[in-house]
Amino acid sequence: MPLKEDPSCLGESRQTAIQRLNSLWKRLSRDKEYLSLYEKFLQEYEDLGHMREIKADGSGVSFYMPHHGVYRPEKSTTKMRTVFNASSPSTSGKSLNSIQFNGGLVQEDLFSIMVRFRKHKYAFTTDIEKMFRMINIHPEQTCLQRILWKKGIGEPIKTYELTTVTYGTVSAPYLATRTLKQLAMDEANNFPLAAPVLLSDCYMDDILSGSESIEEVIELQHQLIEMFKTAGMQLHKWCGNLLEITSNLQEYAFWSLRRLKHLE
């Protein structure tokens, strides 16, 4: 994370996180479905190694982020997402977000991307699955991304550290998009079609691209899939105006294959 101030300027933040957790549990205890989704989300975080339990002894610099859930039943994939509040002030008045640079813009503007997208004879869109969470932060900075959680109202509170780029931190968009840019530069020789697309036709975690020939668009799709594999990432939610763009995906065994759509 790009910091503009030394994290030692952060005050105590654990007590606020405890208070918010207790308030959260009052709501969770009244809605079993909400509780189930919340537990499932955080359990997945831990199972994937995106957060780890630690023994906090109170020493050293740390920052605790309160969290809450955003429930969106219309979503076809993640209906409930836990949001981590990196703007919650510590006792010094400073928060994790207030001591970070936002990093600036790395990708092209959306208007330019859309203009190019509309010109393709064969076009497709795809999404980088869990983009932020596929990017690790430096181990020395995970202490700045601590959260609290417990299995029930009367259960002991446990301390965790988030190990990946976290949605809700001001530098997250920069860290993610700069990582994608580096991936494209590193793999340019191995994936000559995919690398330029990642540099010019990607807006946050969405890729909007295409080609003038069926053969090239299928090869581009193949290169994109393989290039992202080198970084441990996957592409999903494919849409296209050509059947071959989506029917060609069977060999990759995407979990979202049943939701593939075609653009009219």
Structure description:
Residues 107-236 form the Reverse transcriptase domain. This is Integrase catalytic domain-containing protein. It holds the Pfam family RVT_1. The protein is an alpha+beta fold. It contains seven helices and ten strands. The protein has helices spanning 14-28, 32-47, 110-119, 172-186, 194-200, 214-229, 243-247, and strands spanning 51-54, 67-71, 80-84, 122-128, 146-149, 158-162, 202-203, 206-211, 235-240, 261-262. Strands 7-8-4-9-10 form a five-stranded mixed beta sheet, sandwiched between helices. A three-stranded antiparallel beta sheet has the order 1-6-5. A two-stranded antiparallel ribbon has the order 2-3. A hairpin with an 8-residue loop joins strand 5 and strand 6 (158-162). Helix 4 packs antiparallel against helix 5. It is globular.
